[in-house]
Amino acid sequence: MIDSYVPLIILVTVGFLFGLSNIVLSQILGPRKNKTKVKLEPYECGIEPMTSARERFSIKFYMTAMLFILFDIEIVFMYPWAIQFKELGVTGFVAMNLFMVLLFAGFIYVVKKGALKWH
Question: Which pTM does this prediction carry?
Fold first, then answer.
């Protein structure tokens, strides 16, 4: 039984050693430059930073991003359904319609709560 795990143990060991060797070699062979205040500042495409890089974002930004991901993932569920549409028949059609109704109800709820308003 342990014989079936030998390839996995070898793979994990080689991966670990590769990662460790890259870290050690970069410390040994990498350039050593003096760290100055200017070099440690965040670089923003040649523009002088106006505020701290640790600035807080509005919760609206995160809500919009999560909602985009949530509603975008529906395509992941719709694509296989569209490919197998003929084989699924009426049952598949009803199931996808139920899924779309629930998704639309969730969208209406989000709009009513004002999660997409930026004021």
Answer: 0.50
